[in-house]
Amino acid sequence: MMLYSDDYALGGHDSILVVYHGQRTRDFKLKLMHSPKHQLYTAAQIRSIETRAMQPIVHQGMGISGYTLMQRAGQAAFEQMLHRWPESRAVSVICGKGNNAGDGYIVARMAYQFGMRVQLIALNNPEQLQGDARTAFEDFVTAGGAVSPADQAIEHGVIVDALLGTGFRLPLRDAYADMIHRINETASGVLALDLPSGVDPDTGAVSRRQGGVLAVQASMTVSFIGRKIGLYTGAGKAFVGDLSVADLGIADASRSVTNETCLLTWQHERLPAISPQAHKHQRGKVVIVGGDLGMGGAVLMAAEAALRCGAGLVSVVTQSEHRAALLARVPEAMFIDPDSAVLPEILSAADFIVIGPGLGRGEWGGGLFTVVAAATTPKLIDADGLYWLAKADKSPANDLFITPHSGEAANLLGVDAPAIEADRLNAGTQLAQRYACNVVVKGPGSVVVTQEGTQICAHGGPAMATAGMGDVLSGICAGLLAPLYASGDQGAVCEQFSQAVALHSASADLAAQLLGPRSVMATDVTAKIPSVLSGKTQPDD
Q1: Given pLDDT bands bounded at 50, 70 and 90, which one contains residue 253?
Q2: DSSP state for residue 78 in the 8-state scheme
Q3: Could you give the count of Cα atoms lying within 13 Å of 413 in the half-sphere of its Cβ?
Q4: Among 45, 161, 208, 282, which residue's CB has the most CB atoms within a 10 Å radius?
Q5: Which CATH number is 8-262 given?
Q6: What ranges do the domains of the chain cover?
Q7: CA dihedral 510, 511, 515, 519 (to 10 degrees)
Q8: 240 within 8 A of 2, measured Cβ to Cβ
Q9: Local structure of residue 166 (DSSP, 8 states)
Q10: How confident is the model at residue 23 (pLDDT cuts 50, 70, 90)?
C-alpha cells in the first residue's frame, strides 16, 4: 500500500518532509505539505512551475536558480534517506542523464560529505552532462567522489534511483531496462528521485518487458515540487512505495497553472446532513436491476450497500428464483417481478436506478436494459449493463453514471484494454464525452471524471481485485446519490459521486487492514461502510 508522508489523513503515516530554504545556508526547515484539493500535475505543468519560480517578476526580486532547486531536491531526498534508513552507512547512486541525474549527484555528494560509503554508477558519460546537472557532477567530483562505469556491480546499502525523471516517455531503452533489472534484483532498499524510473509521469504507464511490466521497484519515492499524476494511477502506482512530496520552497505564486486533476480522498464531513424530519421517501427510492439466473448475488450486494449508505427505499428487479435469497440476505429490500406490467411506472417513480449487476448478456438482460434505458430516471450502469450500453444506438437520457473497469471501458470505446491502461485519464475523458456521463474508470488509482473535473482516488489496493467489488460500488453510488435527487439538491451530485468512489476504496482499505489483502471479500467491504461513514479509517480508531 502506498503511504503518503505529507498527509496523515491519506495513509496514517506522518513522517516529515524536508524542504530546503535559502541558497547558502545549510540549515533547513521541516514542513508538511497540505493542499485542500491535493492537486496533481503533468510533467509539463511541473516544468512550468519550475520556470515561473526562476522568474524574478514572480517573487518581486531574484528568482530561484535552477541549481538551487536541484540542491533543494537533493537535500530533501538525502534527508528522507537518512530518516527511512537511519542505520545505513553506504549508498549506491545510479545516475542517467539530465536533471534527474543531477539530483542523484547531489545526493551522492551529501552522502559522501556525511561520511557514508558512496558508490556512484553512471549509465551515461557524465562528461556529456550539461547545465545544472553538469555542475552537480563537478561538485561531486570536487568533493572527492568517484564515478563508476555502468557495468560495475551494485555494491552498497541503499540504492538511489536517479536514472530517469519527468522527461521520460515510453518505450524504455534496452540499456535502462537492463539497469532497472539489476536494481530490482538487489535486496537493498530503493529510494526513487522524483519518480521510479520506467514510470510515465503523466499516465502511470510502465514498459512491458518479457511478458510483464518493468520499472524500478522503489521502497520510497520523493516527488519534487508537486504530485505527478503517474504516481497515483495505473501500473506505475505499484512501483512507488511510500511517497513523500517536497515542495522545494517554491511559492504559491509560481503554482498558478491550469489544473483540473486532483487527488480524491474520503471526507466523511462532506456528506449531506440528514434532516431530523426526514422519512424514507425523502431519503431516496432506489431500484436495482439485474441478477439473471445464477447471478443473483450481484444485485443482493448492491442492494445491501445502497441501504448501508443511506437510501430510504431499495427495490430489486431480479429473477423470481432469487426472491428467497433476497428476503434472507436483505429483508429491508423489496422484490419486484421483472415481468410486471407496471415496471416502467416503478422505474419512473424511482429517484435512482442501478442496472447491470449480474444482468447477463442473454435475451432477458437485453430486454430489461431496453426498458431501463427508456426511463428518464437518473441511472448508473455497470457490469453487463455496460455490455448492452456499448451495443445501444444511443446513450440513455438524463443523468448517467458509468463505472467500467479497463476491459469494459475498452469495449465502450472500441479499443483494447492495454490502450485504456496506457492512459487512464484520457479514457475517462473520452467516455464522459461520448456518453455525456459521469464516469469512474476502476482499477489502481481509479479515475473519476465529472463536470467538475478529473480526480484520482488515493485509496484502494490489491484487496479490491475480487468478485463483487463493482456491485458494492454501484450500491454505494445509489445510496449517496438517491437522496440528492429525492431532495432536488443536484448541485452536490458530482461531489457525492466522487465521494462514493472514495468511500468504497477507503472501506476496502479498512477491511484489508483487519483481514489482510488476500482474505477480503466484497461483503467485507460493505460491513466496513458504517465505520468509514463515521470517519473511522484505522482499525484502532
Answers
A1: low
A2: H
A3: 24
A4: 161
A5: 3.40.50.10260
A6: 8-262, 281-403+460-493+510-533
A7: -140
A8: yes
A9: T
A10: very low
